[in-house]
Amino acid sequence: MKQDLFQAIADPTRRAILTLLAMQALTPNAMAEKFDMSRQAVSKHIKVLQQCELIKPEHSGREIYYHFNPKKDAGI
Question: What CATH code would you report for 5-68?
């Protein structure tokens, strides 16, 4: 199921995650530390952002780094 872009960015935590990822790629564990929340909570936000194609994963060994996707078309 594809998420609505505007519902995805309505959440302040997801906007903060996007802001961080615009500056540098991060792993879910690194995001959890920065937001003082569980990795599972971060994973839920990541899933929504990924479904909207606002972020994209990149595998590096055993880690997954998430990057901001600046080429996302808002469809407006």
Answer: 1.10.10.10
